[in-house]
Write a structure and sequence with these properties.
The N and C termini lie far apart (74 Å). The protein is extended, with a radius of gyration of 26 Å. The protein is an all-alpha fold. Helix 6 packs parallel to helix 8 and helix 8 runs antiparallel to helix 9. It contains 10 helices and no strands. Among the domains are: 47 residues, no CATH class; 80 residues, Alpha Horseshoe (Serine Threonine Protein Phosphatase 5, Tetratricopeptide repeat). The longest helix is centred in the last third of the chain and has 30 residues.
Length: 239
């Protein structure tokens, strides 16, 4: 019995996962024994009974799937440094395919995993060293892809943060200026958006049609906002 006394808490977490909930839902940040005393009920009568009266358990395991060697993709934390380097191009490719399929959130998760692999390796290098720079140059396109996903998910402030981080190191990155400009425009940072788009044109004049389209869209939104504000303020002052 002493070996299964904590099983009810584990079982509750597994049931939460199966239901799509946070596995730690309702738990406090304390040791497992304190958790037992804190929880008068786990929300499941059978687990409550087992918690009160611990007893030996027998588990029946069912094999759902057998995967061929090498077909299972490890989580980044479980990989060796060499495995991380080898995995990044594959994860990048998977992210691109998901993005083409319109699965933006799933693609962002893939790009995030690839970035995590490279960041982990980069932490072991001296900042500014050739190896550190080489890894950083691999991170940058992945981070820009991640930002594109975040733009489509309307998570604009995350885009502003990441693109600014890139531009602090690489002042001539056109894609970072363009994505940051779109994010600034979305959150009504008009002057900042115009400055970023101007920088895009200075670095790559061939993008003028694309930039002009973004500026026209921003101007149209501004006119619409002005009209809405006039109606709103007119209603306030006429009361």
């Amino acid at each position: 019995p002493q070996h299964v006394v904590l099983y009810p808490l584990v079982a509750k977490s597994l049931r939460n996962i199966a239901a799509g909930k946070d596995p730690l839902e309702g738990q406090r940040h304390c040791c497992s024994v304190a958790q037992l005393h804190h929880h008068y009920s786990l929300g499941y009568p059978d687990l409550d009974e087992l918690q009160k009266n611990p007893q030996p358990l027998i588990f029946d395991m069912e094999v759902l799937k057998v995967e061929a060697p090498g077909s299972y993709q490890q989580d980044p934390w479980a990989m060796t440094d060499e495995e991380k380097l080898q995995a990044v191009p594959l994860i990048h490719k998977e992210g691109n395919e998901l993005y083409r399929q319109g699965k933006v959130q799933e693609a962002a998760a893939k790009y995030y995993d690839a970035i995590a692999c490279l960041k982990n390796l980069q932490m072991k290098e001296q900042p500014g060293s050739p190896d550190w720079i080489e890894l950083d140059q691999k991170i940058t396109p992945l981070l820009l892809n991640y930002c594109q996903c975040k733009l489509q998910s309307e998570e604009y402030y995350e885009v502003l943060d990441h693109c600014s981080s890139i531009l602090n190191k690489y002042e001539d990155n056109v894609k970072a200026y363009f994505k940051r400009g779109k994010a600034h425009a979305a959150v009504w940072n008009v002057a900042e958006a115009q400055a970023d788009f101007a920088k895009v044109l200075a670095l790559d004049p061939s993008l003028r049609p694309v930039v002009s389209k973004e500026l026209r869209s921003l101007e149209a939104r501004l006119r619409e906002k002005d009209a809405e504000d006039k109606i709103r303020f007119k209603g306030i002052f006429s009361q």
